[in-house]
Amino acid sequence: MKLTESQLRRIIREELRGISSKKMIKESSSKDAYSRLKELRKEYNRDFYHLKFISQDEYQEIYDLLKTSEKNRNSYDSFLEKVRKIIQPGAAYSAFFENKGFNLPYDEIIKLMKEHDSLSQRFVTKNASDETDRAYGRKRFQVVDKETNEVVDEFTDRKGSLGS
Predict the structure, then answer these.
(1) What is residue 143's three-state secondary structure?
(2) Helix, strand or coil, per DSSP, at residue 41
(3) Which of 5, 33, 96, 106 has its CA 20 to 30 A from that of 60?
(4) Positive or negative CA dihedral for 78, 82, 85, 88?
(5) 29: number of CA atoms within 13 Å, CB side?
(6) What is the residue-wise DSSP string for 43-93?
């Protein structure tokens, strides 16, 4: 079977469209996954931090106390006393005064933490500084998806930079 020039061009064009659309899907899924990771860090990083220092029962008890005290503001002092009995003063304790953390029940936060851990293993931050960056004291980084080798984010650390 002979192919005419126009048929051959059409076949090549279709193949190129298919390749480019697959590449766009991979890039968008990498960027979507990274944006989900950033969203989880922004919203629940404090909760993930608390789980390193307190047990499941303590977390759930504090969560329940917070929900109860929100309904009944008169019992706030008794709430703080109960919290002091549950955990020792420190990083987790200071969160109560800042009104941060303990936003979700333990089971839900564990699911989100597992999602966060799997997503964070998917990405790696690499040094992308060049000679100009080094001359000005900047550090440039790229976040790369390990699965697709696509750069999903770039940022510059300007600490110590001559321009700041």
Answers:
(1) strand
(2) helix
(3) 33
(4) negative
(5) 11
(6) HHHHHHHHTTTS-HHHHHHHHHHHHHHHH-GGGHHHHHHHHHHHS-SSHHH
Domain spans, the chain: 30-157
User: Quick one: 75 exposed, middle or buried, by C-beta within 10 A (0-12, 13-18, 19+)?
Assistant: middle
Q: What is the token pair recorded at 35?
A: 């944006």
pLDDT tens string, the chain, 164 residues long: the values are 677 887 777 777 777 766 654 554 444 588 889 999 999 988 888 888 878 778 888 888 877 777 776 566 556 566 666 666 666 555 445 554 455 567 778 888 888 899 999 889 999 999 988 888 888 888 889 999 988 889 999 988 877 556 55
Q: Which residue type does 18 have? A: G
Q: What is the C-alpha separation between 162 and 21, in angstroms, rounded?
A: 43
Enclosing H/E stretch for 142: strand 139-145
Residue type for position 149: N
Residue with the two structure tokens 């922004």? 42
Give me 41's structure tokens.
């860090």
Distance CA 96, CA 117 (A): 25
CA 150, CA 152: separation in Å to the nearest integer?
A: 6
